[in-house]
Structure formats: C-alpha cells, structure tokens
Design brief:
Chains A, B: This is Nicotinate phosphoribosyltransferase. Chains A, B: Pathway: Cofactor biosynthesis; NAD(+) biosynthesis; nicotinate D-ribonucleotide from nicotinate: step 1/1. The structure is a homodimer. Chain A has 19 helices and 13 strands. The relative contact order of chain A is 0.14. The longest helix of chain A is centred in the middle third of the chain and has 22 residues. Chain A folds into two domains: about 160 residues, nicotinate phosphoribosyltransferase (Alpha-Beta Barrel), CATH 3.20.140.10; about 200 residues, nicotinate phosphoribosyltransferase. In chain A, strands 7-6-11-10-9-8 form a six-stranded parallel beta sheet. Chain A is of the alpha/beta class. The interface between A and B is medium-sized, with 21 and 21 residues.
Chain lengths: ~425, ~425
Amino acid sequence: MADIATRVYNHRWKIDPVVRSLLDTDFYKLLMCQSVFRNRPDTQVTFSLINRSTQIRLADLIDEGELREQLDHLRTLRLTRGESTWLRGNTFYGKRQMFRPDFMEWFENLRLPPYHLEKHDGQYELTFEGNWPEVMMWEIPALAVLMELRGRAVLKDMGRFELQVLYARAMTRLWEKIERLRALPGLRIADFGTRRRHSFLWQDWCVQAMIEGLGGAFTGTSNCLIAMRRDIEAIGTNAHELPMVYAALADTDAELREAPYRVLADWHEEHDGNLRIILPDTFGTKGFLDRAPDWLAGWTGIRIDSGDPAEAAETAIAWWIARGEDPRKKLVIFSDGLDVEKIEELHGRFAGRVKVSFGWGTLLTNDFRGLVAGDGLAPFSLVCKAVSANGRPTVKLSDNPSKAMGPEDEIARYKRVFDVGAQTASPVIV
Amino acid sequence: MADIATRVYNHRWKIDPVVRSLLDTDFYKLLMCQSVFRNRPDTQVTFSLINRSTQIRLADLIDEGELREQLDHLRTLRLTRGESTWLRGNTFYGKRQMFRPDFMEWFENLRLPPYHLEKHDGQYELTFEGNWPEVMMWEIPALAVLMELRGRAVLKDMGRFELQVLYARAMTRLWEKIERLRALPGLRIADFGTRRRHSFLWQDWCVQAMIEGLGGAFTGTSNCLIAMRRDIEAIGTNAHELPMVYAALADTDAELREAPYRVLADWHEEHDGNLRIILPDTFGTKGFLDRAPDWLAGWTGIRIDSGDPAEAAETAIAWWIARGEDPRKKLVIFSDGLDVEKIEELHGRFAGRVKVSFGWGTLLTNDFRGLVAGDGLAPFSLVCKAVSANGRPTVKLSDNPSKAMGPEDEIARYKRVFDVGAQTASPVIV
C-alpha cells in the first residue's frame, strides 16, 4: 500500500532539507550561546566559511540557487514547542534546567540572521554578521548544508542500485569500525560529526548503529536533534570561538594574555562537573597550561583538538602532576581527526593513566573515501569561524600551524603575547 | 508520516509469505506443465524433497508449525486475473499465446494438491502425490519455502543494524560480481535462482541490480512473478523431470532407451526457436548425443547442467560438427553451480566458438557465504524431484555421480541401458 499523502509530500522539495530544525546543531553551541547571551550579548561578530581544501571547488560543484534555497530554509526555522520542552525539561550532564528561562525565551524567538553569499574563484564566500548569540548559531548548519549539497552534487547522476550499493559499502565500513571498537575495554566514545557529516539521515544512521553496536560504550551525540529523537545524551562543552572572540576584544596585550582565562572564569561560574573541560590549544597548549591559574587544574578534564594528541595528553598529565592533581581522576577527550586506528592507539596508551573519552567526528559520519570514482565524496576541511568581533580580527593559533587563522601581523602578535615557539605542522585531514 | 493501515497490515503474518503467488515459480515449470497437461495429464507422480547437504539439519532449524503455515498458505494461492492476463497476453520467446486456452483455464482453477510432511532424523520428509501437472507445481515454491525459512531461523536473533549491515555486505558482494561481469563483451546472462534463493525480496533486489548494472547483457529471469513485475523476459525451457518420468513409464529397456528422445519429440512438436534447447545429461550426455536422432542436431542449443561444463560444451561442439552443424550458430547455456570466476572462464573459452549464455542460480540469489557466524547462511544442496511415476521409481544419473538419484538396482539398470561408463564425481556446491 503506497501512502498517497506521503508520496505527494515527498514530491515537494522539503522531503529532505539538509537542516530540518534549529536543534540540528551541536550541543556546545547552545551552552556557549547561553554563556554569550549572558556575558557578551551585544558583541558584533562576523562568521565566515573557510574551505581549507581549496582543490575542492565548491562553487563549481554546488548550484547557487540550491544553496540559497537551503540557507533561506534555515532562516525559516524556529524552535518548536516540543524542542523547547525538551531543552527546558531534559537533564543534561546530570543537571536539570541547564538552560535558564531568559535564554529559552530568547531562543524560542530566534530566527537566524541574514547571510551574505558571493562566489569567488570557484569558492563560495559565505558570511554572517550580527549579534554574537545570533550569528554563532549559523556555524554548524551552514557547514552541514555545504557538505551535504556537495555530496548530493556528486551523487546526482548515480543509478538507484549503484546508490544503494554505495550506502551498503559505507554501512559495512562503519560496522567494521564498530566491531573493532567493541574490542576496546572501557571505551567511551561520542558522535561529534554533525558539521561535516555526509547528510542528516546518514548521521542518524551512524548514531543508531553506534547505539546497537557499542551499547554503553557509546556515550551520546553532539547533535541535539538526534539526541532528542534517539533519546540519548547530548554531548559537548565549549569551543575555540569563546577565547577567539574574547581575545579579539582585548584592548591591551595584558588583557589579551588574560582573555582565555577570562572565558573559563565565566564558564566556571556557570558550570561544574563534566562540563568543566579545558580547551587549551586556541593560542598554544603548552603556554596556556604553564600560565594557567591553579583553579583551572581543579577542572574535570581537557579536550585535545589539534597537534599531536599523544604529546598534548602527556603535556596535560605532566601539568596536572605539577599542580598536585591525580591524572587518573582527570578526563582527556580526544576530538581531532579521529579514526579507528588512532582511537585504538590513544586508548591503548592512555586508558588507566587518565579517564579517556573520544569525540569522533568526520570519519564517523562522513567516511565515503574511495567509494565513488575520483573520490568525489572524500571529506574535506571546511570550517566556519568567527573572523572578527566588534570590528577587530580574530586569531586562532592552535597546536598545528596548518590550522592557524587570522591576519599575519595579528598572528605574529598573538605568538609573541602567548609565547608560542616553534610548532610542527601536520596535514589537516578533516 | 507513518501509514497506519500499512503498519497494521504488516503486524499480521502475511507481511511476507515466502511465496506470494502461483507465478512465483520458474517459467520452465509452466512450459513443462503445459506439455505434461497435453501429453501425460493422468500420470500419477510423487515429488519428494531431498536435502543433499545432510549436515544441515533442517528439522532442527525450522519450526514445523511455521513450515506448515507457509505450505498451507501456498495451497490458498490461485492465479489472479492480472497474472492470468499476463500469461495469456504476453509475448514469451517472441511468441504470442504461448499458453493455450485449455491449459490457461486449467491453470486458473489450479490449487496446489495436499502435501505430506514428516520429521525424520533431523530432516523434513516432504512429499507431494497426485496428477503430474498439479504436483509438479509444488517443486519450486516448496524449495523456496525451505530455503527462506532456514534463513529466517538463522537471522531471527540479529539486531536491526546487524541485519542491515548483513544485507549491505551481500549487496556489495553482488554489485562487485556485476561490475566484473560488465567487463565481459557480448555477455548474455539470466537469473535462474528462484528455487534456492535467500528470499523473494532478495531475489527481486538481485534482479533489479542486474537490470541496472548489466543493461542488455541481462536477458531476464526464470521467475515469472518477477518477470511480470519488472517487465523483463521470462526465461526457461525444460528440465530433467520430463525424461525422468517418461523413462520411469517405459515398459521395456528399448522403450527406456527411447524415452529421452520421446520427450524431445513431444517438445519439438510444440516449440521452436530458442525454446528448442536440449538438456542432455539426465542419463549421461555422451551416450545421449551419440544415439540422438539427426533432427535433434537441428535444435537451437543445449543446456549444460552437470559434470565438467567445459568438457560437456566440447562434447556438444564435436557432436554438432559430426552432424554437419555449425557450432557458431548454436546456443550453449551453462546453468550448473555458476559463479563469476566460472562464468568468466567459460565465456572466455567459448564466446565466438558458440553462442554462449548463462543461467545464474544460487550464487546470484543466495550468496551469503561467510556473512554470519558459523556460516549459517551458506547455500546448500536442496532439491525436490519426481521420485516415482505410476508407482515406478524414477532415476537420474547426470554427468556427476554425486547427483545421481534413484534405487541402486535401477541406477545400475539405467547405466546399462544408457551405456554410461566411468564418471568423475565432483562436489555438489548448490
């Protein structure tokens, strides 16, 4: 029996918008948004899409009309009553009413602000300007739209069975990864793959496969919509945009040097427990930890998102010991460019020495490498970052100079202020 | 939008009966049935299920109640008006009205006769007795029921994603076979996999994948229901049951020796063109061809279904040459235990020397080898054969002694009458 109404509905374009809800975003965006809403609501911020994989000429691949249609659709979305109820009533990280009533009221009325789109040299220049709490909500869905439209463009001429076999292969590949992960005792791993996922439906499939295949070792997803629908934990804490914007707002070098700690001081006031996770690499991990106030060593853990992850974890362990903390009680979250081999290696090296956890991103939700001719579905390095705040450029150094962002003179200034020495460049996979 | 009516319907058992139509059978059964209906309608024949893979204890795997339910369901099936219209109005092998009105009238009223089911030593003894045209229609659906229920038994405790990945792997495997076959110039291949298929839905998927993946090189399916639904050619000519029963009915050795030719004489009267395909191996290919009347050498081709296929094809080529025929105008259909390697090998050796065609069976529609623990889905050798006719046992020798069937003394008598010398045994894969 075909359901005629469903068929007719499906004929319309909305059968699968890339982003179907304001909750189809990373949980940490909501936590950060609430923090920004309270502490820096009027900051004028510009977000900009940056394709680090310039050989992928997105503007040649993706039709501009289609892109605008998806972005315009995003601007029509509003938090639904059910979504709002879930945010207000659900327990996150063991805490009820994580989101305060004033923030929820603001969020319920949020519509994404306008976007600015141009084509230049085979790439899209996509920027978002406005009040920080509003524009920051563009980051994840904008990335997801670009990633998925690129995939659709590559797949559009494939036959029905060719497509089915393509997904069959991707499913088999993921399942084989899950079977390997199952062998790791005490594993804790979450999905961090929203932004560069192959598609929403595919991310949802991956999450469900992880639930069935890993059981309790799968700790949740960063995607709020999927967390809500699949009734699992929403995972995430904070990201580089906080120190980047706080730093850009600093008036002096002294203030600049203090900015990253100011971020965490604000965070400290709001959150405890497993939400107190340091992200140390924005302006270099080593210097950040060396200069850190003692109260930061009391935090629950650290997230390692660039550079050599084992080296960074060793740096953190040494730092905790130096500050009189027991590393075995600390959480180390690895979240940069992970795949099974790397997870096995890091788990083998650090399990027992610290509490280890993994935020598995693009190679969980978008590993179609080698599955189409010309490798047209291989993931690539697309980011959407705050590039200026109140008219001043932002800077990110990270522990991998290939990931550095910002005007050259500002990068030089930040390197001096944060006392960043020589760094080892490593290729950015995703 | 969930379609509630569909859901409620699906709750009931009939969501997927193993066999859903009297047309869910091989096309050659219908051709043979019409022939039997005209020439030997009153012959009392017993069909019996024989599991040549005795290590697979079907009665331990398959619940008897479930088996009876499926067999009982088969006995409720009648040809629908649309199915009848298709048989009456469609063109088969380029011929209109392949099925005569008297046969169609009989078929429209057919219900499958009763079955007899017992358990013995871990196996089911399943027999069908009655008028030949009626009981012969049990063969294919009975096999399909046993094969699919065994698969369902093996799959019943698997998780949803585990199942999906299982099928993903099977799809990928088939697609890789199709990609290899695509490289063979001038390939002609049909689906012969109904009887030992994994399931109806899976066979239907395989056929559709062949349509998309091979285009014109895929010549059709032996399955009438799928041929009708997918609007492709129904393929098939005749099988061993005709000479087996004709032979059993012979009163003297001389009549016995003539029986296989008598079958083909009847066939000659009814059919021409691509339906004139010799199946020579029932009582040994070599002797059959040596003693064959000259008019048989004028037939369109030969189907090779046991023994070493290359050797049998060489025998046929030599025979055609000896009878003054041009082998390049003759069709050789390989249909025994084929998989891609064998198809590539036979195609490479015989393409150009004869017209080559392949009837791909079990390893097209049921290659789940190695996909579950314990290899519980590997195909096995289940047949359903006419074992007696008017109270006399039937015999099959074939070109592989491992496939011989019948009482020992009768086998000896047949070997003498048909002058069958030493044969090489080879393992029966499927």
